Backbone:
């Protein structure tokens, strides 16, 4: 499961890049910017999933990233 939406990740990325331009931030912040960009690049919407019902619980697997979705 993605903890942030793609829009939220973009907001964090834009804010972080602005901070990097305006302020003198530690080098670790550049690594964080790269990590957020990687999360944006690899973001999956989980739109193509097959669901199997086990009683009242529906379990699915995304066809794109193979994540199990409850």
Residues:
């Amino acid at each position: 499961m993605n903890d942030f939406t793609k829009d939220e990740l973009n907001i964090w990325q834009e804010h972080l890049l602005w901070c990097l331009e305006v302020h003198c931030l530690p080098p670790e912040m550049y690594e964080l910017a790269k990590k957020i960009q990687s999360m944006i690049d690899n973001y999956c919407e989980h739109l193509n999933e097959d669901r199997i019902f086990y009683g009242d619980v529906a379990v699915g697997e995304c066809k794109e990233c193979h994540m199990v979705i409850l």
